[in-house]
Design goal:
It is built from 9 helices and 11 strands. By secondary structure, it is α/β, with parallel strands linked by helices. It has 2 domains: 147 residues, TPP-binding domain (Rossmann fold, 3-Layer(aba) Sandwich); 73 residues, SIR2/SIRT2 'Small Domain' (2-Layer Sandwich), CATH 3.30.1600. Helix 5 runs parallel beside helix 9. The mean pLDDT is 95. Bound molecules: ligand BJW and zinc ion (ZN). It is an enzyme of class 2 (transferase).
């Protein structure tokens, strides 16, 4: 297999999805044993679902908070930390995962595209989101101290805009013109959710090299130059040649 060469002329954008956390014991969304097997997606991950039944949404996210509280990073997360230490500012990690495991592992240049499971915001006023590990599993909805409105998890749901600052940071990294060559690697993601699924094409538009590491073929596999099929915790630690 051709190695992924990370040398002093390379800048690397990594996109991770739920598959990267799977070997830490965090369930994925889609497919076998996926989190959404027993929950209609729109009921728990959309503003409309929250308006219709906020207590159900808090039950779902309370289970998620409890499940993700004690999990540990796996060798896939650790490999990305080593790559960042090697590349410095020529590395950026965009993650769709909300479990915080990349930060726990030691990654620093992280864009949390879809928010953070352990942060809460107000659905009804503009107060700044805050760190929060509390759970509300028994049909209650926590109230905002500032306005008395409904609190909600600080997660990007379907139909909601991603933070424009996050998108700008990823876009600027892709467009950077400093004489380095751009490599993009997506790992553990089904390629089903936008705008993350379209990053591969933004990278191709500037003639970047593109890699996918996934357990099974993704919705956008054919857009990548290289597809390495396997578990990220096994593939990532040996994939790159750090020179
Ligand atoms: C392993 C493994 C191992 C397992 N090793 N691999 C353009 C076209 C069509 C639709 C749209 C579009 N633009 C926007 C949309 C609408 C929508 C969308 O994408 N819909 C599609 C489903 C069709 N997007 C949005 O609404 C986004 N907002 C937006 O674009 O705003 C502007 C706009 C709105 C409306 C219209 C147009 C523009 C927001 C998307 C936010 C997604 N948020 C979620 C929910 C969070 C809730 C929560 O956490 O509870 O984030 S969706 C869910 O999917 C979650 C994930 O981050 C995201 C991606 O999933 P991921 O990470 O890929 O996981 P899985 O489970 O799908 O796949 C895991 C993969 O790993 C599998 O392939 C396994 O094989 C593999 N695997 N073990 C390696 N060990
Ligand atoms: Zn409020």
């Amino acid at each position: 297999m051709e190695p992924l060469v990370l040398d002093s002329r390379t800048r690397l954008l990594v996109l991770t999805g739920a598959g990267v956390s799977a070997e830490s014991g965090v369930p994925t969304f889609r497919g076998m044993n996926g989190l959404w097997e027993n929950h209609p997606v729109e009921a728990v991950a959309s503003p409309q679902g929250f308006d219709a039944n906020p207590a159900l949404v808090w039950r779902f996210y309370s289970q998620r908070r409890t499940g993700a509280a004690d999990v540990k990073p796996n060798p896939g997360h650790d490999a990305l930390v080593r790559w960042e230490q090697h590349l410095g500012d020529r590395f950026l990690l965009a993650t769709q995962n909300v479990d915080g495991l990349h930060t726990k592992a030691g990654s620093q240049r992280v864009v949390d595209m879809h928010g953070n499971l352990f942060r809460t915001k107000c659905a009804d006023c503009g107060r700044v989101p805050f760190a929060d590990t509390s759970v509300h599993p028994s049909g209650t909805v926590p109230k905002c101290d500032s306005c008395g409105g409904r609190l909600r998890p600080d997660i990007v749901w379907f139909g909601e805009m991603l933070d424009p600052n996050d998108l700008a940071r990823i876009g600027e990294f892709i467009q950077r013109q400093d004489g380095t060559r751009l490599v993009f690697l997506a790992a553990g993601t089904s390629g089903a959710v936008w705008p993350a699924a379209g990053i591969v094409d933004e990278v191709r538009a500037v003639r970047g090299d593109t890699w996918l590491v996934n357990y099974e073929s993704a919705a956008n596999t054919e857009r990548f130059h290289h597809f390495v099929q396997g578990l990220s915790g096994q593939v990532l630690p040996t994939l790159a040649n750090l020179v």
